Amino acid sequence: MKKIAILALTENGKNLAKKISDSWQTQLAIFVPAKFADEIAKEFPETTFKATIASFFSTYDALICIMATGIVVRSIAPVIEDKRQDPAIIVLDEKGQYVISLLSGHIGGGNQLAVEIAEKLEGTPVITTATDVQGVTALDLMAQAIDGFYADFHESTKLINGLLAAQQKVGLFQRQELVEDLRGLTLLTEKQLLNLQEQEFTAIIIVSPYVETDLLQNIPLLTKVVHVIPKQFVLGIGAKKNIEFTTVKAEFLNFCQLQKIEPQAIKKIVSIDLKKQESGICQLADWLTIPFETYSADALATVADKYPQSEFVKQTTGVGSVALAAADLASQGGVISQRYANQGVTLALADLKISSEGIK
Question: What gap in Å lies between CA 205 and CA 170, rounded to an integer?
Fold first, then answer.
C-alpha cells in the first residue's frame, strides 16, 4: 500500500491515529478538525470532513477513518466510482476494538489492511466479502496477483466470486503455473478441459496469454467461461516517421494473430528514444492502456548484434535493430519472435517470464 492517510474527528481518535502511525514502517499522514490539530496531526485541508475525504479519494491508496461508519458511508457515497480505482476505506471505533474493511476490500487491499491494523491494535478485523468469509479465492484478486485482464470485469467478478462463495464447482486451467491461491477451484489439465461433460462445472477460468479458440469451442454452452489474460509480453516496435495510428494498430493486431496471442497480453511497448513522441506508437499504447518506454541508441547497441541488422535503420537511428533490441532489453533476453515488418512498422515479441538464463 503506497499512500495512506488517517482521518479522525475526536481527541481520542487522534490519539489512536498516532498509535497506528507509530506502529507503521513509515509515518502516516494524519488529519483532524482544526481544534485538534498539532505538529503531527494536520488540520483538514477542506472546511469539512466530507469535503476532505472527497478531495483525498483520488490521491490516496487507502483512507483510515476513526469515527462512526455512518459518517463515512454518507461522506463517500457521492465519490465512489469503480472498485478498480477507488481507495481502500477502513473504519475504526476510537478504541480500536473493531477494524472494518468498508470499501475496496479486494483490489484496493482493504481486507488485508484491516487485518494488519487489527493485529497491531489487538482488535478484531471485520471482513464481509463473501469469498473471504467462505475461505475461497476471488477472481479479481487472482487476476490482480498475476497482472491479468479479463473482459466484462464487473459482471464476471460478481458471477465467479458468487459461485465460489456458494461452493459451486469452478474449474481452473492455466497454461503456466501462475495462480497460487487455488482455494475453491478444481485444477484441470488440457485433456480434461477438452472432454468436459454438460453441467460438470458451473464455470471455467482459463488463464492464458494465448488465443484459446480450440479450448473455448469444446466447453459446454451452459458453462460460464472467463479468460484471464496475464500481461506477460513486451512489444518491441519501430516505425517510419509520422506513421498513422490506424496503420500501427492494424499491423499490431495482425502480428498478434500470427503469434496467436491476445492483444491484452502486452504489458508494455518499447522502442528507441527517437520514437518517444511518435504519435502512432503513443496512441497504440494509450489504446492498450499500457506504458510506452524507450531506450537510447547506445543501450540498444549493447544487444543489437544478436539480431539481423538493417543498414538503413542504422543510418537513421544509430543502431541496426530497434524492435528486436528493445524487446530484448526490456525482457532481459526473452525474445520469442522473429522480426515482423510491414507497412512501415516493425514488431518483435518478448516474454517477461523467459530470459536469456531460462524461465523466470
Answer: 7
